[in-house]
């Protein structure tokens, strides 16, 4: 491929996508940046909210990615937690849900750069 073609593709946003399956699974970010991932089946759990609150305090620069479609009405509870903690958040809708699992992530707390935590689930 010609260098100019590659540059044009990248400018148009149609260039190669790095790890697209991984990014779909983790709501648009890479696994290496994830602090905490909460599955749809865990959304109603009080433990999920407690753990998220702890992680928000421990990682003040992390952003909470919220898939509104998967989180349902519970997203408001989580949104209140992230606002109280002062962390950034991003509301996602019509997100391309991962086909890799029957229980996808509804919330992902992620840093801007790699932190490579071993355990990211509750």
From TrEMBL:
> By its UniProt entry, which Gene3D superfamilies does this protein fall under?
3.30.1330.30
Cite the InterPro entries for this sequence.
DUF1694, Ribosomal_eL30-like_sf
Region (Disordered) residue spans: 1-22
Can you name this protein? YueI family protein
Q: Source organism lineage?
A: Bacteria, Bacillati, Bacillota, Bacilli, Lactobacillales
